[in-house]
Design brief:
The complex is a heterodimer of chains A (296) and B (260). Chain A is of the alpha/beta class and 296 residues long. Chain A contains 12 helices and 12 strands. Chain A folds into 2 domains: 154 residues, Rossmann fold, CATH 3.40.50.970; 118 residues, Rossmann fold (3-Layer(aba) Sandwich), CATH 3.40.50.920. The two termini of chain A are 37 Å apart. In chain A, 51% of the residues are buried. By secondary structure, chain B is an alpha/beta fold. In chain B, 42% of the residues lie in helices and 11% in strands. Chain B is globular. Classes of the chains: A alpha/beta (296), B alpha/beta (260).
Amino acid sequence: MRKQFKNTVMDLAADDDNIVMILGDVSVYLFGEFKEKYPDRFYNMGICENTLISVGAGLSSQGFSPFVHTIAPFVTERSYEQIKLDMCYNQFGGNIASCGASFDYAWDGATHHSYTDLAILRLLPGMEVIQPGSNKEVDVLIRSQYDNGNATYFRLSDHPHNIDVPDIEFGKAAVLQDRDSNLTVMTAGPILGNVLEACKELDVNLVYFHTIKPIDAETIASFKHTNILVIHDAFGLYEAVCEVPELSVSFHGMPDRFCDRYGTLPGTRKEIGLDVESLHKTIQKKLDGVCCGLSG
Amino acid sequence: MIPNCKDIRKSILSISRESGHGHIPTCFSVVEILYAVYSTIRHDPENPSWDERDIFILSKGHASLAHYTVMAHFGYFDMQSVYSYGSFASDFGCHADRLKVPGIEASTGSLGHGIGLAVGMALAFKIRKNSRRVYALIGDGESNEGSVWEATMVATNLKLNNLTIIYDNNMSHSRGLQIHNPAERFKAFGCKVTEADGHDLIGLTSEISKNGDMVKAIVAHTKKGYGCQTLIDNQYQWHRKSPTESEFEKLIGELDEKAI
């Protein structure tokens, strides 16, 4: 997904002199081509996330479209106030493209995990929050949002799903399964790969989001006659869905504890019940409950 | 104290008495600095968004009342409008909002944000090969924030010789985390450093007008409450206090007694 990010930005920069790359000492080799071609618009500023955001806001104030790119927990949780005040309150928007969330850096442990970023950023007025799940979504959504003057968060993953989501449009959910079921699964981002695999033989509806804010309340509301199960490897989507009135919603995903093991992304997903097998059991159990009138 | 700066201090006292708000001692420490900045930079109060203007950011945003009164003095808006300071309906908040007040370049308040924004703006002018300059006024207490030094490092690494940092050394830092010898610190971070009497308008104006080939840091030595001995002697009590009628008369008298 980072390679797609680079390719899309390179393509846009060919026609747009206002694109400036600000790296926090990540993806430096990947963006070597950009540096070579546009040396006065490429800055590896170092490991100083607060300042990366403030500088991005300052560039934005003078008409540039900056991309601040570094590791998710550090650029969001550590720099939350800079995003809130310098970008959102001042209306000096810009693009923040993170990597590593939620558990892409599983082997690095809990310090490098990031699963609150979507939830906290969606609370900021004027913020756009995007969790692309595939390379195609990265390309379409960056092109549509990068220069609109808003503060926009792109949460990039090194583990995209390979599902061809139809009609990708900012702020619009995609209904991937509509089986007239009493249970609707809602999910977002790369975990769709596991969720779709777990759902495909089950009699459930499936709604997919790449945009967390603004949330597609209209599509959510169209399933309010069903029980909704949000499955997500982060906070943020569940809370956004719950804001739509008159729903019956439950959540399967993040536990209220640190995931303090190491290893690989699949290992961490399995630990918290987000591997295909666990998801299948969870959804089947929910479906059984719904059918027996136990859920609600 | 030249008459203009005395008048500005009187306006600060008067607006604070009227509104019930104001960080008067910290405002009084920066009056000459603000006056010198607006006497030096390229700006047009008739056209605050002039696209060739220099940029000034008040990073120590709680000195907003001094900022407003100096800007009013230079013609950005009528002084009378500032008397609504801090009220619900006012555009002149206790921390300035750039979207409400013409000529305010950045909404500040939370400390440690102004330099980072200034670095981004100065970099923007460098990329555009534009001669515009950026000035950021920061406090010594504010400089307890790590983001101040982070941004300073980035500025010097980028060789932003179109950026001037003015450090109001009014000894606020002495209450808590002390910053000994700030000039040496800025020098160590790669800035071209000068020190100045922060109440010497002529000297400050001269320093602010000088540019070089490095990020410039001016350590301005000031006194909180400068101009009123009562404020200098009772800084803690007056940190956020606005004067009563009798206190107002006393402070005005102290200003009038000051011969400089």
